[in-house]
């Protein structure tokens, strides 16, 4: 007799705990498959410490194959679920497709970013939901402080060393607290102009910091932030974002080059395609975390509306604490459905909250006892070490080294700005050139729903707003729709599109715009007989029909003129199709002479901003370009 097949979608707090507990309970009596875009479980509460240079990225990334030896790991993102056929369709990291049959299915896809219809936010802000975004923010903040220290203009210096965080929930508060300490440490080594220092701002429409926590903890967190010089503005949010700064709802304007979006989350839209009863975007389940009428289907974590038995008529909130406990109970009930053990109803007891504010400062209320200062800091770090499923010794070692050694403030440049757009359906995976990435294009939502900011450390996925396009684990069998007019990509808040990207100034070495410098009289460039215009590949970048591009892809597109402080323009790809479609361009070498061209960023990705240092640039005719190194 064949063993039952269990498929778990998502490896966040709920999915990881479900897989680990099921592996222990079934003891090889079932085939357990875990479907996830990455091969690690991300301990999200410590992600702000990665951005601040305290912890190395792998410290908060727990290997799935290393800690779940009896669970089969499949890398991919769920595209759709056929409940009647008992199959899950997915797309792998290299575009390959597959199907997973199941006898029991556990949905633990987590949550995605909540985007609000605020002009300019999608183009000029970055989220903070995955490892690539944390690495990018660390590089970006380091770069801005270094550029501010070297700036001749006082206004430019002030704008570059101003950092705006929107959303005063758990994540936003910790990002602002750690960020202020990180930049203060930088300027001690490289002082800026007399009387100037980095400025951090924390905005939220809520009446106080972290409104979902106890009021005493909220006051403690706000006091620590203000002591570090953070400009905390409650009852205020962003009205419009531009390249040069943000316009606030109180009418004031703040010049800045950094906008961090930590407003909030919503359940992953994967569950919306099932056509089952929902509660505010979450799949309705019974106290045993089972979907009524579907004995083979279980849900836990942020995608599940689990009845709160301690508060009749309400549902458990979207927090890491609940998701972690959901996973254990869900695993026990899945095993019980296979005849192993007995069922349990989910009932919780509030154990309190901890918020790390950097250094020896924290706010905590373990078992309802409010604490602050070094005692709260010790409790907070002890809780994180106990809660982490791995890497405890390495995390403790990094904390010890940070206490006795200065932090390394360097730019690694591993994650480019266009790799982590805010409108991303998979923030845990950085976009790469030529990859058929999927982008959410709709930013609709409730403009007043950002009160309270972030909801939980376990909201590990990012995507979009209700009613938006497809998200991480869910395409619904439908490709994401592009915006009206065929708009498929926007520039990063760096200004004018790079000259090798469509939508801005035409590339100098491509016909169809400004004539090539070495082609007298506007004569078409070489390898373009009869003035044939360039063809646009699937990536949205111009391609010559003869000679492959070599000028800019190796080091990233040439920076636009936005580096000088001029407002940017949105780039438009003329041939952009559906954002969810995969590239159909051949993967083999071109028939033309020379090596195949680098695919460049995908069509729907915004080109790199001027904060990316360009490498050497060569003209396609073999001569050095004017002004290039």
Explain how this protein is built.
The chain has 629 residues and is an alpha/beta fold. 21% of the residues lie in helices and 16% in strands. It contains eleven helices and 27 strands. A five-stranded parallel sheet has the order 5-2-1-9-21, with helices on one face. A four-stranded parallel sheet has the order 13-12-11-17. The radius of gyration is 25 Å and the shape is globular.
Q: Can you lay out the helices and strands and say which pair or pack?
A:
Elements: E1 5-9, H1 13-26, E2 31-36, E3 40-42, H2 47-51, E4 61-63, H3 64-67, E5 72-75, E6 77-82, E7 87-91, E8 97-101, E9 104-107, E10 111-113, H4 121-124, H5 131-150, H6 154-160, E11 162-166, H7 170-189, E12 199-204, H8 215-227, E13 231-234, E14 238-241, E15 245-248, E16 253-255, E17 258-261, E18 265-267, E19 278-279, E20 282-284, E21 297-299, E22 304-305, H9 320-337, E23 354-356, E24 362-364, E25 371-372, H10 373-387, H11 392-404, E26 535-536, E27 542-543
Parallel strand pairs: 1-2, 1-9, 2-5, 9-21, 11-12, 11-17, 12-13, 20-22
Antiparallel strand pairs: 3-4, 6-7, 7-8, 10-18, 14-15, 15-16, 19-20, 23-24, 24-25, 26-27
Spell out the key features of this protein.
5-stranded parallel β-sheet, about 625 residues, 4-stranded parallel β-sheet
Strand coverage percent: 15-25%
Radius of gyration: 25 Å
Mind summarizing the main beta sheet? Answer: 5 strands, parallel
The count of helical stretches stands at 11
Average predicted confidence as pLDDT:
75
**Principal-axes shape call:** globular
The span between the termini is 69 Å
- Which regions have little confidence, pLDDT < 50, spanning 5+ residues? 436-600, 605-629
Main β-sheet, spatial strand arrangement? 5-2-1-9-21
Estimated helix fraction: 10-25%
Class based on secondary structure composition and strand pairing: alpha/beta
Number of strands: 27
